[in-house]
Write a structure and sequence with these properties.
This protein has 456 residues and is α/β, with parallel strands linked by helices. It has 3 domains: 98 residues, Rossmann fold, CATH 3.40.50.720; 202 residues, 3-Layer(aba) Sandwich (UDP-N-acetylmuramoyl-L-alanine:D-glutamate ligase); 133 residues, Mur ligase, C-terminal domain (Protein-Tyrosine Phosphatase, Chain A, Alpha-Beta Complex). 32% of the residues lie in helices and 24% in strands. The chain contains 15 helices and 23 strands. The strands form 5 sheets. The chain has a 7-stranded mixed β-sheet with strand order 8-7-9-6-12-13-14, with helices on both faces. The protein has a 6-stranded mixed β-sheet with strand order 18-19-23-20-21-22, with helices on both faces. The longest helix is centred in the middle third of the chain and has 16 residues. It is globular. It starts with a strand and ends with a helix.
């Protein structure tokens, strides 16, 4: 089969492309600004990439067009379609589908799918779960919205019946406004947490809870739903109905709980010690992620003690508290955190690791939710444990200086990356930890910062 993917350089669609190629299909694709690292990875797999969405791509005549959710029916200021290829596909009546649907019908059918959903921690928990199954010799397939360092790739088809997938609640495509995860039909579903996010898609938290319940409805009677007992929103989701076995984690009264600090803790199943996790990963949020992964892996036949052994060698995910370099005693980190809760838990994890040493938190509100200002008032709360906070305000429709005013002199705002780098260089001193947080490239701040710190 020849598939042509529109929006192929996105993390999810790039993963679909890699899986399709590994499964033996001919894969081509297009995107606006074909960009690395995904473009390099795809070309290395022999996938032809085309710049833009020109209608001349109709000459490729694939068996099916796979449409990413970046594609819309929008028109530019000149009145012309922004995605002329999509208009041509519709006009010609050619077969098209979404990435999640193609994946479900061609690669997930008949497999034991383990899907990890939640506002935060999806990528990390999916990676943990895949590594636990791999360590147990189950050779799972997986699709992760990042690069797990234990594997070095974001997707593979696997050799066994198990497939671990990061289950995103974002919408599927312009013609299918259901969440992506509704297509996966998991046998094991992890509901890691649930907060308001994606303000460009959902009107309120109740709308997201409805989509999560759609996911719960697809889990079979012999399946398992692993749920964070600390989240009232998930309690409401399950109260709408659940027809599968449930296992809870996190709350004081849960099936799986942790006893001890995040870097070393006992795992208790219904109050009885069953495993101990010793690892280099920081943060209470990662302790919870580990409990979720252990409970899910148990449903696939891996007992908690074996899962804990696997986690001891878990190397985390690229861009999750990743150390990019140390210059003059100043350590620079890269992290994907962008939602206020994720920012807070990330800073908390670093604080537990570095003690009283200074944390300089640099961030850009880049997600659609943050650009819209839906949760801007939570930013001072999210940055409480940082000694200083630096915000890149370029492209925002709200006043970052006003929002961060409650932090007083601890907060700085910069309109450009150059200004932000200059602010950081001016105050950084040996022993400091600069934590850069964004769900995008952050204007290459990491390399520029390391170079600036190197300069006299």
């Amino acid at each position: 089969m020849h598939i042509h993917i529109l929006g192929i350089c996105g993390t999810f669609m790039g993963g679909v492309a890699a899986l399709a190629r590994e499964a033996g299909h001919k894969v081509t694709g297009c995107d606006a600004g074909v960009y690395p690292p995904m473009s390099d990875q795809l070309r290395a797999l022999g996938i032809e990439l085309i710049e833009g969405y020109g209608a001349q791509q109709m000459d490729l005549r694939p068996d099916v067009w796979v449409v990413g959710n970046v594609v819309s029916r929008a028109r530019g200021a000149d009145g012309q379609p922004r995605y002329p290829l999509m208009e041509a596909i519709l006009d010609a009546g050619r077969p098209y589908t979404s990435g999640p649907q193609w994946l479900a019908e061609n690669l997930l059918q008949g497999r034991h799918v383990l899907a990890v959903a939640g506002t935060h921690g999806k990528t990390t928990t999916t990676s943990m779960l895949a590594w636990i199954l791999e360590h147990a010799g189950l050779a799972p397939g997986f699709l992760v919205g990042g690069v797990p360092l234990n594997f070095g790739v974001s997707a593979r088809t696997g050799k066994g019946p198990h497939f671990v997938i990061e289950a995103d609640e974002y919408d599927t495509a312009f013609f299918d406004k259901r969440s992506k995860f509704v297509h996966y039909r998991p046998r094991t579903a992890v509901l890691n947490n649930l907060e308001f996010d994606h303000a460009d898609i959902f009107d309120d938290l109740a709308a997201i809870e409805r989509q999560f319940h759609h996911l719960v409805r697809t889990v079979p009677p012999s399946g398992r739903v692993v749920v964070n007992g600390l989240e009232e929103s998930l309690v409401r989701v399950l109260h709408q109905g659940c027809w599968s076995e449930q296992r809870s984690f996190g709350a004081a009264v849960s099936d799986f709980t942790a006893l001890g600090e995040p870097h070393g803790f006992e795992v208790l199943e219904r109050g009885k010690p069953v495993a101990r996790v010793e690892w280099d990963i920081t943060g209470v949020h990662n302790q919870l992620n580990a409990l979720a992964a252990i409970a899910a892996a148990q449903h696939a036949g891996v007992e908690p003690a074996a899962a804990a052994t696997a986690l001891a060698s878990f190397r985390n995910v690229k861009r999750r508290m990743e150390v990019l370099g140390t210059v003059g005693g100043v350590t620079v980190y890269d992290d994907f955190a962008h939602h206020p809760t994720a920012i807070r838990t990330t800073v908390d994890g670093l604080r537990r690791k570095v003690g009283t040493q200074r944390i300089l938190a640099a961030f850009e509100p880049r997600s659609n939710t943050m650009k819209l200002g839906a949760m801007k008032s939570q930013l001072p709360w999210s940055l409480e444990q940082a000694d200083l906070a630096f915000c890149h305000s370029g492209g925002l429709g709200w006043d970052a200086r006003e929002v961060l005013a409650p932090m007083g002199a601890r907060a700085r705002v910069a309109d450009s990356i150059d200004e932000l780098v200059a602010q950081l260089k001016a105050v950084a001193r040996p022993g400091d930890h600069i934590l850069c947080m964004s769900n995008g490239g952050f204007g290459g701040i990491h390399a520029r910062l390391l170079a600036a710190l190197q300069a006299p």
